[in-house]
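As noted in the main text, all predictions were made from sequence alone. Below is one such record, for ABC transporter ATP-binding protein.
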Amino acid sequence: MAAPPDNDVLWARSLHHTHDGSPALSGVSLGVHEGEILAVHGPRGCGKTTLLHCLAGQTVPQEGEVWFDGAPVHTMSPSRRERLRLDRFAWIGPEPALVPELTAWENTALPLLLRGTPRRAAKTAALEWLERLDVGACAKRRPRALLQSQRQRVAVARALAAEPAVLFADEPTAALHSAEGAQVLRTLTAAARSHRITVVLATHDADVAALADRTVALFDGRRVNSPDTPGVEGRDTCSLSV
Ligand SMILES: Nc1ncnc2c1ncn2[C@@H]1O[C@H](COP(=O)(O)OP(=O)(O)OP(=O)(O)O)[C@@H](O)[C@H]1O
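Prediction:
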């Protein structure tokens, strides 16, 4: 088992995974540099979510290796992977998945509280991130009293407040209309860059992928070269017009 390259905070080799016998990943390898925003781009059903689940330690691939910060994730016990996800990773899905009994600020502070951050400090951080996501006025409301778009902003604030090493964002703006989605993505990418958070962003939308530093294209569970998602793109050449 060869160790990953030093400059990759996250690294996967030859991932194979099937769901009920049908292939979702067929030999995907990739590396993610520290502080990089990497887009995983491809059409629906090409394996983006399965890849992010494997990278984030939510799914153990049937074959292949995943390494984070020099440690093999694919051989960790379930409890160690759970700890890793809580301490070092954050996840934003297409739906907000908030705890209905908690207010917006309590939801945002939850990962910090679970890590043992004192309540006052966790609340301060949560309120700051809610402000930054333009939902500061919603801090004391429960999810059912919020619009879907406000709930998704709270979910983004929760992920960023945890200041994870790696933020996995799986179609994070799928439930938002395009102008609002673009604004949330700009906030997310700006915050990730200023806090040196590595981001792995799954999207079927080329405009969203263009916000990343680099794009990996998938098709039918394999990496491909795509004309609209060139292999390596510098930040300076990215379109920020969405
Ligand atoms: N739990 C599951 N059970 C059965 N098949 C699944 C399951 N999850 C994913 N699949 C199948 O595996 C393949 C890859 O799915 P995956 O969700 O990883 O792709 P995706 O690119 O994220 O798609 P989408 O954009 O629609 O979420 C698809 O053919 C999908 O139908």
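Residues 19-20, 22, 24, 42, 44-50, 204 surround adenosine-5'-triphosphate (CB under 6 Å). The first strand starts at residue 8 and ends at 19. These features were considered when defining construct boundaries for the mutagenesis experiments described in Section 2.9.
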